[in-house]
Design goal:
about 290 residues, alpha/beta, Metallo-beta-lactamase, Chain A, Arc Repressor Mutant, subunit A, 2 domains, 5-stranded mixed sheet, 7 helices
Amino acid sequence: MEQWSIDRIPVSTNDHLLEHEANAYLLTHNCEDALLIDAGYADSTQTILQQIERRRAKLHGIYLTHYHPDHSLGAAYLARLTNCPIYCHPLEYRPLLELYASRSIEIKNIHIMPSLVNGSTVTHYNQSLDVIHTPGHTHGHIALHDKTSGIMFTGDTVIPQGTVWIGPPDGHLRDYLQSLDQLIARKPSTVYPGHGVVTDQPDALMTAMKARRLMREHQIITLLQSSPKTLEQLTQEIYKESVPTEMSWVALKTVQGHLQKIREDMIISVTVDPVANQISYYIESTTSVK
């Protein structure tokens, strides 16, 4: 069976986004027809177009792992230029349209297909990718898995450096941990992540990512058992000076995501100080999981 060629296309942006570099992946068949997984930023489409031209390929579809701007803003421009559809999970459809509207991106005559549901298959000639719904980073996040070769495109569920941002309203930590378990169970041979380099030791990476999340959860529970703390105080104690000021909101959202899960698992006491306009959280040392 002939395999497709996979080009990792690192793309960067001059826009002031959380992530300044992301991956797009061009999958090319020997007949020069191609698929694109994720599409980078609005100002990085030229890099992707140049790779398509090098391959002398015709783009047949753009498949988004999720709607976040570092993966989807380039899709509208590329779809218009190449006259191909954009595919996403149904739960990403509305946020994607809202993102494009907020950036004044014209989508007239662009076909956006919310058809990447869990268990469906992306078929291209004699190759296929299974769609896996992996909520956590966003509600409609997906991964794509070629179970024949073992390769997997994970978007932002698995990245080799740093940690994945999980926080409301887009994300949910319990969903994310379950998604990691789902991907670990599939035993991929190689992971193509949304950011960073391709890894051929995905099991160790995903296991470590899960352990880090559980470690952080334990740390928050321990802090809340010692004394009442606000969300801001928790964030300061956990991250101290390790997070740049401009990124502090990300750390805050991350802790908020952990608190969301802990409040579902345990009884947390909440106190409100109307004068200081503060909410504090506290866990009795004898409290157990609900």
